[in-house]
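A quick aside before the break. I want you to see a complete sequence-to-structure record at least once, exactly as it would be stored in a machine-readable document. Don't worry about memorizing anything.
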Amino acid sequence: MRLRPLNDVVIIEPDDNHFVSDNLEVVKIAQAGTIILPEDNSLEKKANTGYVVSWGYSCEYNFKVGQKVWFPQWTTPCYFQDGDKRYRFFREHELNAVDEDGS
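That is the input. The structure line, written in tokens, reads:
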């Protein structure tokens, strides 16, 4: 599948593309109604760098495919999984920095 982001969305392939836990269940409700946060989800580590895969037509910055970018580590991620690769979606204004030299 070929993704084409719309508006100011940028698709990033995270550096590590590895996650400590793939458990998507965020909370568990005990019998008494208490909310319990599983430890493995609260300690999940995510990369804060990645490479540009594609970007929308409303982006102000002139991105290049494969350009390294930095983004906040602790965000609510939106993922797309294609086979064994997982991509993240960001709005352009959420990115922190871009490597313009390509080094």
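Two observations worth writing down. The chain has one helix and eight strands. The longest strand covers residues 49-55. We'll return to this after the break.
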